Amino acid sequence: MQENTIYADWLKLCIPLGLLSCGVLLVAGIGLLCLKPWARVLSVGYAIYAILFGILSTAINFIFLIQPMLKSANGQQTPAAIGGMIGGSIGGCFGLIYPIALLVFMLRPNVVAAFHPAQTDGK
Questions:
Q1: From 27's CA, which of 10, 35, 63, 71 has a CA 20 to 30 Å away?
Q2: Which residues in the chain land under pLDDT 70?
Q3: What is the pTM of this model?
């Protein structure tokens, strides 16, 4: 990891993006509690971002971390390294559960209707 500047730069980018996404989640959560329409849109946007970012992170970890580790082992991978790679991949998949569930939930018709109540024309 220390020898690959691209991977180090990626990790440096992930920290502020993670902090920003936590702030977005906090604001969206407060808005959802108040049934604000913008909060549902923000939640859908976050879910799409998190899914894409999770897939990209998994790909970058594979390209810049796992592949070089396998090449440097010269066919003599230790069980701990293999376990770490498998665990990291499974962990990445588990990280996608929340954004996928959030996206599915926020796009349900009854949830959409709750954030856009029927307009009354004042009669």
A1: 10
A2: 1-2, 73-77, 80, 118-123
A3: 0.83
| Long-range contacts (CB closer than 8 Å, 24 or more residues apart) made by 89-96 | 89/58, 89/62, 92/54, 92/57, 92/58, 92/61, 95/54, 96/50, 96/51, 96/54, 96/55
Residue 103 lies in a domain: no
| Structural domain for 91, as ranges | 5-98+110-115
Positive or negative, the CA dihedral 17, 19, 20, 24 is: positive
Q: Which two tokens stand for residue 75?
A: 């066919």
Does residue 87 lie within any of the structural domains?
yes
